[in-house]
Amino acid sequence: MSMLKIFDVSGSAVSAQTQRLNVVASNLANVDTVAGPDGSVYRNRQVVFETTYMDELTSAGVRVSNVREDDTPGRRVFDPKHPAADQQGYVTYANVNAVEEVVNMISASRSYQNNIEVMNTAKSLALKTLQMGQG
């Protein structure tokens, strides 16, 4: 694999992890939202990755193929005084688990950092190789 392909592979991963971090941020921002007047509530979203081949199967990267919504029911809390309570006195909140989202955020950010480190290392090696050619 050539040096330049390393940047392509890591760059694709950085881009995918950026999208993942944006989805996690959206999930965390909506963790305590309640159902609107139409009864729909924010649904947890998850990023689905897929392998993408850069050129004729010699190097692979990653891309976001889909952002899917979780169809599990939202969290129901008994609060009959809440304006969004249903007939039984329950309020339906988004089906977002804040702890899982924080773990997802840490994982995405570490993956992002690792791929940046790979690109920095490849850059450093390329510069050292050029310096060797000058001397």
TrEMBL record:
The Flagellar basal-body/hook protein C-terminal domain, residue ranges: 87-132
Signal sequence residues: none
Domain Flagellar basal body rod protein N-terminal: from-to ranges: 8-34
Keyword line: Bacterial flagellum, Cell projection, Cilium, Flagellum
Cell location: Bacterial flagellum basal body
Keyword match RNA-binding: no
InterPro entries recorded: Flag_bb_rod_N, Flagellar_basal_body_rod_CS, Flg_bb/hook_C_dom, FlgC
Principal location class: other
Lineage: superkingdom: Bacteria
Subunit and partners: The basal body constitutes a major portion of the flagellar organelle and consists of four rings (L,P,S, and M) mounted on a central rod. The rod consists of about 26 subunits of FlgG in the distal portion, and FlgB, FlgC and FlgF are thought to build up the proximal portion of the rod with about 6 subunits each.
Family to which this protein belongs: Belongs to the flagella basal body rod proteins family.
The protein, known as: Flagellar basal-body rod protein FlgC
Organism: Pseudaquabacterium rugosum
